[in-house]
Amino acid sequence: MNGIRFDQFSRLCESIEGVSGRLDTIQMIAEAIPTLIDSELPVFIRFLMGKVFPDWSEQVLGIGPNLLYEGVAYVTGLKKGDVVTTIAGEGDVGRAVERLLAKKVQTSFFSEEPGIMEVYSDLTRIALSGGVNSQREKLRGIKKLFANATPLEGRYLARLLLEDMRIGVGEGNVREAIAQAFQIESSLVEHAHQALNDLGEVAVLARTGEESLKNVRIRLFHPVKMMLSQVGSIQGAIADHKTIIAEVKYDGSRFQFHREGKKARVYSRRLEDVTTALPDVVARLNEACSHDVILDGEVIAIKDGKPMPFQNVLRRFRRKHDVATMRDEVAMLPIVFDILYCDGETLIDLPVTARRQRLLEVVNGVAAPQLVSAATEEVEAFYQAALSEGHEGIMIKVPSSCYTPGVRGKNWLKVKPQVDTLDLLVIGADWGEGKRGRVFGSFLLACRNDAGAFSPVTRVATGFSDEELATLHDLLKDRVITASGREVTFEGDLVFEVGYAEVQISPNYAVGFALRFPRFIRVRDDKGKGDIDSIGTIRERYALQNRNAI
Ligand code: AMP
What we know:
Layout: H1 6-18, H2 22-32, H3 41-48, H4 65-76, H5 80-90, H6 93-102, H7 116-128, H8 134-147, H9 151-161, H10 171-182, H11 186-196, H12 199-207, H13 210-214, E1 228-231, H14 234-241, E2 244-249, E3 253-260, E4 263-268, H15 279-288, E5 293-303, E6 306-307, H16 310-317, H17 323-329, E7 331-342, E8 345-346, H18 352-362, E9 371-373, H19 376-388, E10 393-397, E11 408-415, E12 421-431, E13 440-448, E14 454-460, H20 466-476, E15 480-484, E16 487-490, E17 495-499, E18 502-505, E19 513-516, E20 519-523, H21 535-549
Parallel strand pairs: 1-11
Antiparallel strand pairs: 2-9, 2-10, 3-4, 3-5, 5-6, 5-7, 7-8, 10-11, 12-13, 12-16, 12-17, 13-14, 15-16, 17-20, 18-19
This protein binds adenosine monophosphate.
C-alpha cells in the first residue's frame, strides 16, 4: 500500500503535541510534506489542522460528541455513561478515548494498517450519509474507525471527528511549513491561500513552483474568507492616512454572494451556504447586478421600512424550513460594500477606490453609501449621525488598501462606543419560568481554561428579549446532550458576546473567577468554539480593572 498510514500520522501528531516551540512544529510539518504524494497532501494538511474538508467546501461531518461517545462505548463494551464520565474526568476527549481503547479487546479484522486516505474516505462516507437513517449510518462508520484504531490513533481520531486536534497547528504554522518545505516566499503562500481558501491545494501548487502560486485566481462558488477589522479611532485613522473612507457599520450578518450566469449562491460569514434560507436576498442581488461577480456585504432585517435588531437576521440565516413564512415576517435587505471578482477577473489586489469604482459600474442601488474625507469633524458628524439612526457605529477603510481575505488588519477599522465584553461558549442552560417555561431562561457559559478545555465562568439570564429566547431555543434544542431536572447541557458550538460590570474572584467556578452583572449582547455568528476568550484574557481584565481602581 502507498502513502502515509494513519498510525504514522498519529505519531507525528504526538510528536508535535510534545513540543512547545512554534519553530519545531513548523520544522516537523515541513519535513513530512515532501514525502507525501499529491493526492494525500491536502488531506494530511487538513487533518493536522483538525479539518476533514476544505474551508470552502459545503461538506460537513455532522458528528456531535454524543455519537462519538456511542461509538466508543460500542467498541470498548462500556456503557455510554461510563465513557462520558471518563471523558469528563480526563478533560480531553482524545486522551480519554486513548485510555479506553487501551482496554479494548482487539476486534480488527484488518491485517494492514489503514492509510490516511482510507480514513478520509470513511469520513467522507460518514459525512455523506443523510436521510432518516443518517445517524445510524454515521454511527456505523464511527464504530468501524474505532474498531480498527490503536489507542494512539484513537486519540487523534476522536479529536479529528470533533474537528479540534489540540496540537497547536493553525494556518500560520502550516503556511510557514509549506514555504519551508518547497523554499518559497511565505507571503506567496499566504496570498494563494487567501484566494483559494484551501491550504491543502496551496501545498500541491507550491510543489510545482512559485509561478503556479502567483497565478492563483479566486474561484466562483469557493467562498473566500471575509476580510475583518480592528477597533480604531477617527482621529487616529486620519492622522495615519489623511483621507479615509467611512461607511455605516450595519448591524446585520455578513454575506458573500457568488454569481455566474443563472447560478447564484449566498454564503454566511462562516462560509456556510445559506442560499435557500435567503431567496429574497438572492432575488434582490440578481436584480441589482447582471455580471458574474463575488460581492461582499451585510444583510439587514427590515420591518415596516425600519431596520430590525440583528437577532432577526440570524433567525433567517439559520432557517431551513418555513422560509416563506419567515420571509413575510421580516424582509432581508442586502447592502454591498465590496467586490472581489468580476467577469473572470480577481479584484482583491486592487485598492479600495478601484474596487469601489468597479462595484458602482456593475451594481445598481445596493452599494453602501460612502463618505470620503480628510476632516475629522466631518467624519465625527457622520459617526454621530450613524449612532443616532440606531447603527452600531462606522467602518473606516484605508483608500489604498487591498482586500485581504481572513485578515483582521488595520485597513478596516471599526469605530463604535466602547463596552467591555467577552465571547463565551454556551455549554448549558436552565429552562425558564412562567411564560418563559418553554424556552431556556438562563445559560451557562464557558471560557477556555489553561489546559485548553471549556470551563464555566458565568451564567447569564438578562439582556434577552422574548423573541431572542425563542430564537436561542430554536438554535440549541437539538444540541442537548444531558438533561436533569431543569438543567441541560449542550454540545458547545454557539458563542455569546456578554457584557459585564466587572470580573471578580469567585470560588463558584473552577477557573476561580466569575462575572458581575453579566448581560447578553448578541450571538457571535462569526465565532465557533475555537474562537472564545480564554481565562488568560479574564485574568488580564481583572488585573487591569484593579490597577485602574488604585
Ligand atoms: P469584525 O467582523 O469584528 O471585523 O467587524 C466588522 C463587521 O461589521 C463585518 O464583519 C461586517 O459583518 C460588519 N459590517 C457592517 N457594515 C460594514 C461595512 N460597511 N463594511 C465592512 N463591514 C461591515
